[in-house]
Structures are given as structure tokens and as C-alpha cells.
Amino acid sequence: MMGQQPRTESLFYYFRLEEQIPADHLLRLIDCYIDFGFVREQLKGFYSATGRPSIDPEVLLRLLVVGYLYGITSERRLMEEVRMHLAYRWFTRLSFDQEIPDHSTFSKNRHGRFRQSGVFRKVFEEIVHRCLKAGLVEGRNLAVDGTLVGANASNRSRVPREKLVEVAQVSRTVQEYLAELEQQNPVADQEERATPQPMVSTTDPDAAWAVKSGPASLGYYDNYLVDTASRVILSVAATPARFRQETLAARRMLERVSHFGVRPLNLAADKAYGSGEFLAWLLERDIQPHIPVIDRRHQTQGHFTREQFRYEPQENAYYCPEGKPLRYRGLSHRSQGYIYRATEAQCQGCQQKKLCTPGLYRKLFVHWQEPARRATRALAGTPAYKQSQRARYKVEALFAELKQQVKLRRVRLRRLWNVAEQFHLAATAQNLKRLVRHLDQKRSQGLSAI
Fold first, then answer.
1. pTM for this entry
2. What is the mean pLDDT of residues 320-328?
3. Tally of domains in the chain
């Protein structure tokens, strides 16, 4: 006999939310191994001692963690999902008789205590600290890279920089941006500030016009410093999508992880990080750069390379294969190096001129950091270098997870400090998954050994 299920509702139900969550569910594992109570301590000084009790900041953090774990990028939609999803309610401590917070609660806290306290960076660092404490992170072989994430601004929102003062009369965002520029320390920020872009977005002035694959667009770089053995993200940096910002972000991230006691033996990266300045910075800190060197030595195909010229330190001159000197001619601040060249008369009657240069005379460029570049080239054939380059793909895998599972192909918030919040929370969610599975595996092995 065919059954039929009628649509009926009981007046009362015996129901325990705790019993509905599987033992191996990701949120149950996180709740078992991670105590987020430290958030209250971080934010304690930003709440008044009197007045109506606010929403528990730990609940707000748990809500955001759920959103980043499951790729729910809209806070309005996140509240709807929490209302309907049993596991989300259980993890966020919101029982059926409690009201779900309004999505605007996040914005109010974000522009106040969240920003002032830097709580999301501290949450990220706390999870990294626990990864280190659990023995998950080796910290010896690291890799760095950045990925382009689209900004929440239209490409048509850009105006010439000289018109910003005019736009500021009707745009609060531009007013704040110009005020921040005036407050910047011109000496301290000189290294990190690139040449200003001629066009600025009035919607998100911090976003940069960039192209990595496909058409140019406004965006940010999400920079990761990763322990390749465990795939744990050790540091995160949000920067405008400008080429020079990648190496500056790498330096800041390496300095931050040193506070955790992480002392890497080597750093793997792609050729974008192969500038002489950055390579020298790494070698000064006893970090082997497993990085391809940015090198223009072989752009003159079919002609003599610099290795075929003999250098005489006492004369500060190079000698070509024909024994003719190339004297020092000065500095190139733009290219960061020294220039040596022969004279037109020396090269005019040379029998090997066709093998040397198509010009009237031969010129050599020597980078200021040539010793560091030479030392890095010497590492290129070593087994450790090859292993680092093979392991570097793990950073790309994390970026794929970021965009496909966390759904962070385009930022939802605007301005650099807001974007940094999103990047830190996304990396926290990625690290949490690896940490709790590592702890659960250790626990299972311990029980099986007993």
C-alpha cells in the first residue's frame, strides 16, 4: 500500500539542537577545539560599563566565521541562512527563542570598536599562534605570493587626481581619503608609497587600476605568507594592486612572523619578487631566496653576455673579449645600477662587433645589488631550490580555495582597512579548517594508541 505523508504540525516538539549536529561536522570540530572567548578580552575596553547589554562580540565573530567558512559573502544573506540552518544556530549559540541579530549590527561595530581594536588581525594571529603551539607549523620553508581580488567599485568611477578636491565637496569617502593623505608621514611612508596613479576611483580611492589576466580593472592584492609543509597561512597583507606592493608586503609579513619565533630557512616566490633589493634584504636575514632573479642580461640574444666581460676592481672597469675597456660612466637611479661603456672609436674597428652589439658602442649595466643577485642565481640548481619551487603551488591552491569556496573573487567592502578585515577573516577560516582537522587526527591517534 502506498503511503502518503500529510502536512501536519504538532503543538509541541521534544527537540535538542545539540543532538542534530553530526560528530564529524566541521563546526562541531571547531567548537570542540577552539575557544573564541579571547575576543571579549580584546574588545573589553571598547564597551561602556553602563547601559543596555550589547550583542556578545563572540557571537558576532562566530557569525562571521560561518560566513567565510561556507562562502556566504552577504551579511544580510548570512542572517537568513543562520535563521534556517540548525548547525549555524548551534555554532553561534543562537537558540530558537533568541532573535537573530540584524545585519546592520556588523556595519555599526565595523566602523567603531572593530576598526579601533584591530580585532580581526588579532583573531587571525591567535589562530596562527595555536597552529604553532599544536605543532602543525614547521616554519622553515615558506612561500609568498599575491592574488588580484576585484574591488567593489565601477571602472567608470575613476576621475583625474586633480579633480579630487572638487569631488570631495559631494563625496564623504573622498573627503576622508584626502584627509588621510594629509596626515601621512612623508618620510616614514616614502618607501611604501608608489607613484600616484593619475586616475582615482571616487567610490574606493584605495583601489588600484591593475591587470593580471584579462581586462584591466580596479582591485587589491591579497598577499599570503605560507608554511609550505602544513599550508597554514602565517601572515596576510592587503595592498592596492600595484606591482611594487608585493615585495613591500612580503617584507612586512616576514617581520610579523618573526614575533611568533618563526625563523625561515628559505623563501619561495615567483619572478615578481626577484628584485635585487628584496633578494639582498632576505640574505641579510639569513633567508635563502628561492626566487628567479629579474634579469635582463640575455635580452640581447646572439651577443656577448656580461659573464664574458672581465672585471678589474682596481680600475673599476670591464674588459671585453677583445681586451678593450668599458669605463664607469655613472649611476642609473631609475634602474638602480651602474653604467659602464666603451667608446665609439674603440668599437668601430672591432672584428667581433657583430657578436657584441648592434649599436655604435657596447654598454653594460650592473645592478647595485649584483652580489645578492649572483648569490641567488647560485642557489637555482640546488635540490632545496627545486623543492621550494615545486611546493610553491600550495599558495596558488590556497588562492583557488579563497575564490572558489570562500567566494572572495571580489571584495564586498570598500577602503583598504575594510578590505584587510575581509582578507584576515578569509585566511582565519582557511587556517581553522586545517588546525581542527590536525587536532582531531592527533586525538584519534592518541585514542587508538591507548
1. 0.85
2. 85
3. 3
